[in-house]
Amino acid sequence: MTAEFIFRLFLAGVLGALIGLDREYRAKEAGYRTHFLVSLGSALLMIVSQYGFEAILGHANVNLDPSRIASQVVTGIGFIGAGTIILQKQIVRGLTTAAGIWVTSGIGMAVGAGMYWLGVSAAVLTLIGLEVLSYLFKSIGMKSSYVEFSTSKREVVHDIRERLLANDFVIASYQMEQVNHGHAVTYQVTMVVKARKAGEKDLFAIFRDFQDDMNLYKVE
Questions:
Q1: Is the pLDDT confidence value at 111 over 80?
Q2: DSSP letters along the chain, please?
Q3: Answer CATH for 142-219 from 1.10.1740.10, 3.50.30.10, 3.30.70.260, 3.20.20.70
Q4: What are 21-67's pLDDT values in tens digits?
Q5: pLDDT value at position 57?
Q6: What pLDDT is attached to residue 198?
């Protein structure tokens, strides 16, 4: 059985690394090494949960639940997933990566349990969900962008908001602070704008149209 167990670890690691490569290509928080280790570790713990205590099962008054370690993997992997989710400048990032780590642990557990085709199928479907669905629904997918700028003309802020709304952008949050410099006034503006992924270039174009009346600090 040792060779069988090693094959399970190898296959789980390969499937996890494949999912991690997609995240690495997208420059996400957790790459191929993290996904490789999560899948490999999950497979190892699944094998230990199933077969690691066979030597004492014949003893009197010994009754073990082979699913107890596996259930703890599902709970424990949440800590790693939570570590990839961050709130950065009013935008939550890392949810897809966290979900990818969670499903990678499930793939590792499936392979560790000897359910090879189930694990392979789950890995293929995960890659389809990460890549193919993103391409198919690119026109309707939304992406949040953080925008920060300043201007001395309050009407410019109003014009920018109207232009964004007229072009079907969604202003998820908006904050304007008035800063007095003697007789001069500057308006510091931060906003989170939700844009269609296919129309991100239009967002930059809108702010470029107002560049003579404002100082654009960042759009990310």
A1: yes
A2: -HHHHHHHHHHHHHHHHHHHHHHHHTT-SS-HHHHHHHHHHHHHHHHHHHHTTGGGTTSTT----TTHHHHHHHHHHHHHHHHH-EEETTEEE-HHHHHHHHHHHHHHHHHHTT-HHHHHHHHHHHHIIIIIHHHHTTTT-EEEEEEEEEES-HHHHHHHHHHHHHTT-EEEEEEEEEEEETTEEEEEEEEEEEEEGGGHHHHHHHHHHTGGG-EEEEE-
A3: 3.30.70.260
A4: 887 777 666 778 888 888 888 888 888 887 776 666 666 666 667 67
A5: 65
A6: 54
